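Bench notes, afternoon.
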Amino acid sequence: MSDINVSPAMWTRIEAELAAVEREHGVRILFAIESGSRAWRFPSRDSDHDVRFVYVRPARDYLTVWPGRDVIERPLDATLDVNGWDLRKALQLLLRSNAVLIEWLTSPVRYRDGGAAAARLLELARDGADLTSLDYHYDRQTRRTAEEIAAAGEAVRLKTYCYALRTAMAALWLRRRREPPPMDLPSLRAGLMLNADASAAIDALVARKADASEGDTTARIAALDGLIEAALAQTPQRIEAIARREVATRADALFASIVRGEGELRP
């Protein structure tokens, strides 16, 4: 596998790091993805690589009253950061409609695809997501970055604009489509009917950021401000909740299947 935003040399290095995680920690990585600006499809020329994964331990490790650490962290250098969550932690976050986990599961840059296990995790995450919680999450994220834009005056970081746009569009997606939004900017744009001015401004921003450094700035962009303001003009909506007990039962069954390596989930 490869991706235009990840060089072949970096891809090889990341694969080696993931293999080292499995070897050194005695785990099996279920899926591994890129998170951050490279996966969101608006990297700068000096963007780092944020590799995230979900792993499973041998079944015996879950049969204890003293569970071990549920994260693995390998901050390596200024260009590469690798860390992940234990499957049990991931499922607990899934049951709390954690937006970050859903984004990991929909990342367009996949170092380990995950096969049936990742597909079933994504299905459960989508079916069990509390859309109201997700709406509040993206609304908070957008408001925070919008405040940074306002405070910056006429020297707004390109990165800040991109962050605000992505979460604003995710909030609009939720309210219009009543489903969890995709992770990346192109997919969000494809599912939202943006006007020509906003679309052109996004194209120009992403193209400029690709040739810029993380700290480069721009003057205010009216078309983008309008899109962000449109999202913030709506308050998070109360969307019909799903049956939590049923989702929890499915999560328990999926956890057991993956840990046991049963049927199609066997590595």
